[in-house]
Amino acid sequence: MARQRSRRLAVIGNTNKGGMIVSELDEIWSKDLLGRRGDADFLEKFIAGQVRIRLEKGAHGSFAINIDADWGAGKTFFIECLAKQLQNSGHVVAGVNAWRDDYLDDPFVAVLAAIDEAISPFVKKDSAIQSAWKGVKKGAAPVLGRVLSGVAKTVVRNTSARRSMSF
Predict the structure, then answer these.
(1) Cα–Cα distance between 158 and 167 in angstroms, integer?
(2) pLDDT digit string, tens, across residues 49-86
(3) How far apart, in whole angstroms, are the C-alpha atoms of residue 78 and residue 32?
(4) Tell me: the pLDDT tens digits for 11-37?
Protein backbone atom coordinates (compact mmCIF):
# COMPACT_ATOMS: atom_id res chain seq x y z
CA MET A 1 0.00 0.00 0.00
CA ALA A 2 1.37 3.39 -0.97
CA ARG A 3 2.07 5.89 1.77
CA GLN A 4 0.21 9.11 1.41
CA ARG A 5 2.24 12.23 1.87
CA SER A 6 0.62 14.79 4.09
CA ARG A 7 0.26 18.27 2.70
CA ARG A 8 2.53 20.85 4.27
CA LEU A 9 1.01 24.24 4.93
CA ALA A 10 3.39 26.60 6.62
CA VAL A 11 1.66 29.25 8.70
CA ILE A 12 3.54 32.50 8.70
CA GLY A 13 3.37 35.48 10.98
CA ASN A 14 1.95 37.78 8.31
CA THR A 15 -1.45 39.24 9.00
CA ASN A 16 -4.08 40.38 6.60
CA LYS A 17 -5.97 43.66 7.04
CA GLY A 18 -8.30 42.05 9.59
CA GLY A 19 -5.36 41.02 11.76
CA MET A 20 -5.84 37.26 11.21
CA ILE A 21 -2.92 34.94 10.55
CA VAL A 22 -3.07 33.56 7.01
CA SER A 23 -1.32 30.60 5.46
CA GLU A 24 1.26 31.16 2.75
CA LEU A 25 -1.01 29.41 0.26
CA ASP A 26 -3.93 31.66 1.15
CA GLU A 27 -1.61 34.62 0.58
CA ILE A 28 -0.37 33.22 -2.75
CA TRP A 29 -3.91 32.65 -4.06
CA SER A 30 -5.53 35.73 -2.45
CA LYS A 31 -6.24 37.34 -5.84
CA ASP A 32 -7.54 34.16 -7.49
CA LEU A 33 -10.81 35.45 -8.92
CA LEU A 34 -11.32 32.43 -11.19
CA GLY A 35 -10.98 29.74 -8.52
CA ARG A 36 -7.87 28.13 -10.00
CA ARG A 37 -6.32 27.12 -6.66
CA GLY A 38 -8.03 23.73 -6.89
CA ASP A 39 -6.45 23.19 -10.31
CA ALA A 40 -3.06 24.03 -8.82
CA ASP A 41 -3.60 21.57 -5.96
CA PHE A 42 -4.48 18.87 -8.50
CA LEU A 43 -1.43 19.66 -10.66
CA GLU A 44 0.90 19.65 -7.66
CA LYS A 45 -0.29 16.17 -6.64
CA PHE A 46 -0.21 14.94 -10.25
CA ILE A 47 3.33 16.20 -10.89
CA ALA A 48 4.59 14.81 -7.56
CA GLY A 49 3.07 11.44 -8.45
CA GLN A 50 4.62 11.42 -11.93
CA VAL A 51 8.04 12.36 -10.55
CA ARG A 52 7.78 9.61 -7.92
CA ILE A 53 6.88 7.04 -10.61
CA ARG A 54 9.80 8.16 -12.78
CA LEU A 55 12.26 7.96 -9.89
CA GLU A 56 11.00 4.49 -8.93
CA LYS A 57 11.72 3.38 -12.52
CA GLY A 58 15.22 4.87 -12.33
CA ALA A 59 14.39 7.68 -14.75
CA HIS A 60 14.98 11.41 -14.31
CA GLY A 61 12.64 13.09 -11.87
CA SER A 62 12.20 16.40 -13.66
CA PHE A 63 8.85 17.28 -15.18
CA ALA A 64 7.72 20.01 -17.56
CA ILE A 65 4.18 21.22 -18.16
CA ASN A 66 2.53 23.43 -20.74
CA ILE A 67 -0.53 25.55 -20.01
CA ASP A 68 -2.61 26.39 -23.08
CA ALA A 69 -5.54 28.82 -23.03
CA ASP A 70 -6.86 31.85 -24.86
CA TRP A 71 -5.28 35.27 -24.44
CA GLY A 72 -6.45 36.89 -21.20
CA ALA A 73 -7.57 33.62 -19.59
CA GLY A 74 -5.16 34.01 -16.68
CA LYS A 75 -2.28 31.73 -17.71
CA THR A 76 0.45 34.03 -16.38
CA PHE A 77 -1.32 34.54 -13.05
CA PHE A 78 -1.94 30.81 -12.70
CA ILE A 79 1.62 29.80 -13.56
CA GLU A 80 3.14 32.41 -11.22
CA CYS A 81 0.92 31.30 -8.32
CA LEU A 82 1.49 27.60 -9.07
CA ALA A 83 5.26 28.19 -9.08
CA LYS A 84 5.05 29.94 -5.69
CA GLN A 85 2.89 27.11 -4.34
CA LEU A 86 5.37 24.47 -5.54
CA GLN A 87 8.28 26.43 -4.05
CA ASN A 88 6.33 26.73 -0.80
CA SER A 89 6.08 22.92 -0.79
CA GLY A 90 9.86 22.62 -1.14
CA HIS A 91 10.14 22.03 -4.89
CA VAL A 92 12.72 23.74 -7.08
CA VAL A 93 10.97 25.60 -9.89
CA ALA A 94 12.59 27.08 -12.99
CA GLY A 95 10.20 29.21 -15.00
CA VAL A 96 10.68 30.70 -18.44
CA ASN A 97 8.50 33.55 -19.67
CA ALA A 98 8.59 33.27 -23.46
CA TRP A 99 6.97 36.69 -23.94
CA ARG A 100 9.45 38.47 -21.65
CA ASP A 101 12.49 36.70 -23.13
CA ASP A 102 11.40 36.86 -26.78
CA TYR A 103 14.17 39.36 -27.64
CA LEU A 104 16.90 36.72 -27.19
CA ASP A 105 18.42 35.17 -30.31
CA ASP A 106 18.73 31.78 -28.63
CA PRO A 107 15.80 30.70 -26.42
CA PHE A 108 18.07 28.30 -24.58
CA VAL A 109 19.77 31.26 -22.90
CA ALA A 110 16.50 31.99 -21.09
CA VAL A 111 16.13 28.32 -20.10
CA LEU A 112 19.67 28.15 -18.71
CA ALA A 113 19.22 31.45 -16.86
CA ALA A 114 15.99 30.19 -15.26
CA ILE A 115 17.62 26.94 -14.16
CA ASP A 116 20.65 28.83 -12.87
CA GLU A 117 18.46 31.18 -10.84
CA ALA A 118 16.43 28.26 -9.42
CA ILE A 119 19.38 26.13 -8.29
CA SER A 120 21.88 28.82 -7.27
CA PRO A 121 20.60 29.04 -3.65
CA PHE A 122 21.45 25.34 -3.25
CA VAL A 123 24.96 25.48 -4.71
CA LYS A 124 27.80 26.45 -2.40
CA LYS A 125 30.52 28.73 -3.72
CA ASP A 126 33.73 26.99 -4.74
CA SER A 127 32.08 23.56 -4.63
CA ALA A 128 32.36 20.69 -7.07
CA ILE A 129 28.68 21.15 -7.91
CA GLN A 130 29.26 24.80 -8.81
CA SER A 131 32.19 23.86 -11.05
CA ALA A 132 30.15 21.14 -12.74
CA TRP A 133 27.21 23.51 -13.29
CA LYS A 134 29.52 26.12 -14.86
CA GLY A 135 30.77 23.41 -17.23
CA VAL A 136 27.20 22.46 -18.13
CA LYS A 137 26.34 26.07 -18.92
CA LYS A 138 29.42 26.51 -21.11
CA GLY A 139 29.03 23.26 -23.03
CA ALA A 140 25.27 22.88 -23.18
CA ALA A 141 24.27 26.01 -25.05
CA PRO A 142 25.78 25.13 -28.45
CA VAL A 143 24.61 21.50 -28.31
CA LEU A 144 21.11 22.25 -27.07
CA GLY A 145 20.79 25.15 -29.48
CA ARG A 146 21.22 22.65 -32.33
CA VAL A 147 18.74 20.26 -30.68
CA LEU A 148 16.15 23.03 -30.25
CA SER A 149 16.68 24.06 -33.86
CA GLY A 150 16.01 20.49 -34.99
CA VAL A 151 12.91 20.27 -32.81
CA ALA A 152 11.62 23.56 -34.21
CA LYS A 153 12.11 22.33 -37.79
CA THR A 154 10.22 19.12 -36.97
CA VAL A 155 7.34 21.06 -35.39
CA VAL A 156 7.13 23.38 -38.41
CA ARG A 157 7.24 20.41 -40.78
CA ASN A 158 4.49 18.57 -38.84
CA THR A 159 2.35 21.70 -38.55
CA SER A 160 2.72 22.37 -42.28
CA ALA A 161 1.75 18.78 -43.07
CA ARG A 162 -1.36 19.03 -40.87
CA ARG A 163 -2.38 22.34 -42.43
CA SER A 164 -2.02 20.95 -45.94
CA MET A 165 -4.40 18.12 -44.99
CA SER A 166 -7.01 20.52 -43.53
CA PHE A 167 -9.97 21.56 -45.65
Answers:
(1) 16
(2) 998 999 999 988 777 778 888 988 999 999 999 999 99
(3) 8
(4) 333 444 455 456 899 999 999 999 999
Task: Please state the domain count of the chain.
Answer: 2
Residues 89 and 112 in one domain: no
Is there a single domain that holds both residue 85 and residue 124?
no
Domain that holds residue 117: 105-167
pLDDT for 12: 38
Q: What is the pTM of this model?
A: 0.62
Pick from 72, 93, 114: which residue ends a domain? 93
Whether residue 111 is found in the same domain as residue 83: no
Q: For residues 122 and 148, state if they share a domain.
A: yes
> CA of 61: how far to CAs of 30, 117, 121, in Å?
31, 19, 20
Residues 82 and 147 in one domain: no
Average pLDDT for 133-159: 57
The per-residue DSSP string of the chain comes to: -PPPPPPP--EEEEE-TTS-EEEHHHHHTTT-TT--HHHHHHHHHHHHHHHHHHHHTT------------TTSSHHHHHHHHHHHHHHTT-------TTTTTT-S-HHHHHHHHHHHHHGGGS-TT-HHHHHHHHHHHHHHHHHHHHHHHHHHHHHHHHHHHHHH--
